[in-house]
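Problem statement: downstream parser choked on a complex file, so we are re-checking the raw output for the gamma-amino-butanoic acid run. The parser issue turned out to be on our end (a line-ending mismatch), but while we're here, posting the original submission so the record is complete.
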Amino acid sequence: MKNSLTLFNEIANKLLVDEEENPVAEFVSSEELFKKIDLELSENSIDEVRFKSALENLVLKTPRTATNAFFNQLFGGRNDRAVLGDLLAVMLNNSTYTYKAAGVQIGVEKVIINKVLQLIDWNKDGGGTFATGGSMTNFMSMLMARDAFNDEIRVEGMTQENLIVYTSIESHYSIPKNAAFSGIGRENVRYIAVDEEGRMDVNDLKQQVEKDVQEGNKPVLVNLTAGTTVLGAFDPIVEVSEICLKHNIWLHVDGAYCGSVIFSEKYKHLIGGVELADSFSFNAHKMIGTPLTCSLIFVKNKKHLYDSFSNEAKYLYQTDEDEFNLGKTSLQCGRRNDALKFWTLWKSVGTKGLETIVDKQFELADIARDYIKNNDDYISYGIEDSISVCFNYKGIPAQELCTSLYEESKTLVGYGTFNEDEFIRFVTINAQNEKEDILNFFKTLEKFVHSKYEIAQLS
Ligand code: ABU
């Protein structure tokens, strides 16, 4: 039997070669999935030839998120050095809850957390940890906000108090879900209006908070977004922090999408004032380009992580201090090592290299915006200083166009809405792309529209 690593190399190489020629995988509809792909699990083992062929087929038919034709989501590309780290993490298979089980890998996580804390100026009392995604880091912030408001809730359960959470109408859908999970309740989420560029309207927030205070409700959390999912807008941190300070409300900055601007001299002003928040999160699997998932949350005072997430467990914590038993500040128990892929990348390119990765995405977005501005067939719906480039082409409904491009295996791009408008959301998050990849996207789109809509109408 062939060693599985040899098999991995053979299949991975085949994928790399195929991706060059076919950046979009053949479309397999959900209706046809089980007919077209051999996914069946049988009673008995199968021979190596059939196993390899089933695996190869599965890999080659899987949607390609690492190529220069994937602009659909808030991640993309394949960073070699980060992939190396993740492969090693799988080989090592540590669980990062204790020093005993993870040893030097705990150091990997701590060094990343400490470096980022320095960037925010939270290195004195601050702390941080990794979670399974942006929804979970938002959840952690909500739990810490709840417990900071009333530290008996985690002991006695929810009291009669109406705890209130504020977030903009453009924020991530995890906020109402997390309000349900945390016992705060979906109905206690106040959706704050945004301005014409998708940023939280500070006056609306102020009025809502004051109304709640007058009515005897208890404001506990304001969730700001650094990079809204559709437009990529950044909420105003400094002004909101004044409201939070006045009413003693926890301020979280959800930078899952674009919080990584913290690494860029040119763009870090977009999260200016982040040090005024109580917690801040970002996903390195988004702008930094590590494999999924690599989500980090930071707090100004690490006491809150311990207050909300630690629990004694004699069968687990048997050596070393809390400081090195990272399970004491984590939402999870068993926890995969998501830090190593970030570390291998950071170690190899340096902090300057991370900055280049972030800046490149804005450069690519500027190229796309210029193209749109200089071509009358496009209408722009986006904002500047964003890596989500939003537009429509020749008045074709965005949903229809994105779905056709997908089903005909041309390119993967999604659509979004803001106010009354629906448009294509083209995300330039793959820092391995170059100008020609961006221009190729537009060429592909135009050629597709020409053959599907224009020639078809003539004939
Ligand atoms: N946090 C996931 C957002 C997904 C998307 O809008 O592409």
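For whoever reads this later: The mean pLDDT is 97.
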